[in-house]
Every structure is written in structure tokens, then in C-alpha cells.
């Protein structure tokens, strides 16, 4: 029997127009945008549907937008493939996508998660504004070579380190902008295939996000967390967690820790997962899945 897992995308998956068609034809999806807009104090649907892209790419807007649009994708799945929703047995999210996974899992309410995501986005944006930083995706090199590239590109007390272990041959590094700028030339010399700067505001998943930690701790302390209905795999250690207080600590730790996406997927595969649903906008996660194992069955929700 097929074993199903749901994966929820994070920053980088945002695109102008996301969720619009579904919300215009599915009342529960439209209701999510309406509730979010009332809570946030601005028209989230307008940001998602009309942009401009530069505004949607801003961490302050992209995090709530992707969180809500992931749940819109879930509503679409409920209306079209209800059996997949009831048959889901494992869940995970990529960075921000963990919050969408936790709402699906009954760990947080929609409003509480939106409150945390809003503060998380603002806190991370503020941390990014203090120190110019960036993230770069490197294709075609293993972790050992990329660690050496980070060491070569750093100067003085600059931060530059592995931030996302996504799939074989696709690792994201993150750190000071000045260090990131030196990376392409070094990657080329090392024989890498490609070096792609990411559309993010700062050096996420590094110690440069430490100023956001205290604010995230405070807002997380204000919300109730319940045990997840289904096994939930954390980005921080690629392991399943069910204790609410442990999950609370991991969500804080995740901001400065590398995302172990490939390890999480391999753990799920070992547990017998045969089909993964990318619940939210884009096709980023399905592309990563196929690089991990071409035999993996994948489905999308908001292509």
C-alpha cells in the first residue's frame, strides 16, 4: 500500500499570482486569505496575486504569504483528492514550511501560527537589515568541497557556512554578502556546475540570524502547542518529534541551524513513503525529490 507524506515549501517558492485561481473558485481557500488579511492588517491576497514580485520577495511579506498559500494548496487537495489528505502518514516543511506542516498537524491553530510567522518574518528581516547577507545555491559539488569553498571565501570574522542540504549536488550556503560575492569565482575554479544567488533578504540559517531568536522565543512562548496528529520531521535533526516543548525549541533553533532536507527525505523513504505531495506553490521540492531518488512518486497542488 502506498505511504503518503506531505511536504510544505518555504521561501523561494513565492510567485506573483500564487493561490489566486484556487481562492476564486474555492470558498475555504478564499476564507484563509480573508482571515489572514484581517489579522495582518493588509490585503495579503493583493500581495500574493498582484505583487510586485519585489514586494512579495520581502521576508516580511513572503513568509505570511507562503504560509497561507500552503494551506490554500491543502484546501485544493481536500476538494480534489480527499483520500490523499486522510491517507497522509508523515509531514515535513522546508524552513518556513514547517509552520504550515504544524497547522495541518494540529500543533498550532491557524491564527497562532500566523502570529508567529508574522513576527518571525519581521524579526528575520530586521536581522538581515542590520548585516548585509545572502544565500547562494551551489550545484555539482559535495559538502566537503563546499565547506572548503566557504573557508576560502571568508575574510576575518565573516560568516559563510552550509545552510541548506537539499539534495545530491545542490547545497545552499549562507553568510555575509561580501563573502557570498566571492563564491562564484571559487566555485568555477573548483569545478562546480552552477552558482545561483537566491531571492532572500539575508543570511538565513546562520548565526547572523541570532538577533531574531529572542523575538521568536517570546512569540512562541505565547502560543499553545499540541502534540502532532502525525509524525513530524524537523529540519534541525531530520528526526521525528512529538513533544510540544521540544518542537517549540526546535522552531527557535531552526532559524540559525542548517536545514537537513535531504536527510529528512531519506528518513521518510526508509519508513516506506512512496508518494510525496508538494502542498503549496511551485515545483521546487519535487525537483529536489527527483534528485534524491528518481523513483519517488511526486504530486503537486498549486503548479
Q: What tags apply to this protein structure?
A:
single chain; 303 residues; alpha/beta; four-stranded antiparallel beta sheet; 10 strands; 51% helix
Protein described:
The protein is α/β, with parallel strands linked by helices and 303 residues long. Helices cover 51% and strands 18% of the residues. The strands form three sheets. It has a four-stranded parallel β-sheet with strand order 2-1-9-10. It has a four-stranded antiparallel β-sheet with strand order 4-5-3-6. A hairpin with a 6-residue loop joins strand 7 (232-233) and strand 8 (240-241). The mean pLDDT is 96.
Helices and strands in order:
Blueprint: E1 4-8, H1 20-25, H2 27-40, H3 44-50, H4 53-57, H5 59-80, H6 82-87, E2 88-93, H7 97-104, H8 110-130, E3 133-139, H9 143-153, E4 160-167, E5 170-176, H10 177-190, E6 194-197, H11 210-221, E7 232-233, E8 240-241, H12 244-253, H13 261-270, E9 275-281, H14 284-292, E10 297-302
Task: Catalogue the unreliable spans.
Answer: none
Q: Kindly state the mean pLDDT as a whole number?
A: 96
Which structural class matches the secondary elements?
Answer: alpha/beta
Please bin the fraction of helical residues: 40-55%
Which word captures the global form?
Answer: globular
Largest sheet: 4 strands, parallel
For the secondary structure, the number of strands is 10
Major β-sheet strand ordering: 2-1-9-10
- Approximate strand percentage: 15-25%
How many individual helices?
A: 14
Q: Rounded to an integer, what's the Rg over CA atoms?
A: 18 Å
